[in-house]
Amino acid sequence: MNSAVLPLVFQYTLLVFLILCALAVAKTRDLLGAAIIWAAFSLIVSVLWLLLEAPDVSITEAAIGAGLTTLLFIVTVSKTRRAE
User: Fold this and answer.
1) CB contact set of 60 (below 8 Å; sequence gap of 6+)
2) Using one digit for the tens of pLDDT, what is the confidence trace for 34-83?
3) Apex 38 CA angle, 60 and 51, nearest 5
4) Rounded distance, CA 79 to CA 76, Å?
5) Is the Cα torsion angle 60, 62, 65, 69 positive or negative in sign?
6) Residues 74 and 32: beta-carbon distance below 8 Å
């Protein structure tokens, strides 16, 4: 494979995973599972920003999107009661 084609294939693979994560967050009924899938979504977006040569945005997305927001979601879900 050509070395220029490999990053493009990687970007399209990440985009497919990004869409799958978005659909999974929308379809899941478990709030904790949705928060974890959201963290994966944010990490994929962070990697895509890095591939688009925006490292400052990538670091911010990883810290805020995947880190802080996921932590807040998990703390909020832990304070609620789960229905069986």
Assistant:
1) none
2) 999 999 999 999 999 998 888 999 999 999 988 999 999 999 988 988 66
3) 45
4) 5
5) negative
6) yes
Query: Distance between CA 84 and CA 32 in Å, rounded?
Result: 14
Cα(73)–Cα(42) distance, rounded to whole angstroms?
A: 13
pTM of the predicted model as reported, rounded to 2 decimal places: 0.83
Look-up: residue for tokens 């990687």? Answer: 10
Answer yes or no: are the C-beta atoms of 48 and 13 closer than 8 Å: no
Please give the full DSSP string across 49-67, using - where no structure is assigned. HHHTT-HHHHHHIIIIIII
